[in-house]
Amino acid sequence: MSDSSPIFQLNGVTQQFGRLTALMEINLTLYPGERVALVGSSGAGKSTLLRLLNGTLQPSQGEIWALGYNLSQISTQRLRQVQRQIGTVYQQFHLVDNLRVIHNVNAGHLGRWSLFKAALSLLFPLEVETAHQALTQVGIPDKLYTRTDQLSGGQQQRVALARVLIQNPLVILADEPISSLDPELSREVIELLCQMSEQGGKTLVTSLHSVDFALRYYHRLIGLKMGRILFDSSATNVSSEMIDQLYKI
Length: 249
Ligand SMILES: Nc1ncnc2c1ncn2[C@@H]1O[C@H](COP(=O)(O)OP(=O)(O)OP(=O)(O)O)[C@@H](O)[C@H]1O
Known about the structure:
The chain folds into two domains: 163 residues, P-loop containing nucleotide triphosphate hydrolases (Rossmann fold), CATH 3.40.50.300; 74 residues, no CATH class. The chain is 36% helix and 25% strand. It binds adenosine-5'-triphosphate.
């Protein structure tokens, strides 16, 4: 894959859940280093699109290419290799609450570590300095040994970001990463995500309910409405009419 090859390409992708069509005939190309926000009402298909991109969902129709591979035609082993290059951050953090922070951060190594090493690290934490550095980058270095469920929501989302830093993927997908945070923490988390994308040259795709954040921090906005792409535009070209149309019932 050359630097300018698409990182994702979707050709005629439709996603059905029983009789419900969550996404309809999506054609989309995303390039390395792009910062893309997915916006649209609840149920528009944003999370479904992210699950298709990280290969946790297979499309009902169409093709998904990620990092040069057609996801429905590769071996399980190759799929795991591709997925190692795609880090996902979720609204509900997806952390193990009763473990200390260091173990949740070290989960970023899991795609590379053997089962033995992973089990050993639960008893005697490995790569402590690397975990500490990642936590320093997200602003909570002192929480290394705190139990995860003793942290605030904003701090837990930072732990999830530190885990992605450790995973060091080519792509970061973030599914409504700020919906359970207050406006100030939301801004900090979005700024951290953008910083991670910018410093590492990583592609960032984020689903967001806040159009303001999308316009302020992202290069490209994709407006999804009832499973279709209503617009796909640079942030500077998104007009208030386009936003009104997106949220109009
Ligand atoms: N596993 C599933 N089984 C059945 N229906 C599903 C499933 N996942 C999503 N859907 C449906 O697909 C549609 C799109 O859902 P999706 O979660 O992608 O929307 P969204 O834009 O992310 O919404 P929100 O902003 O509320 O998270 C919705 O109608 C949802 O109920």
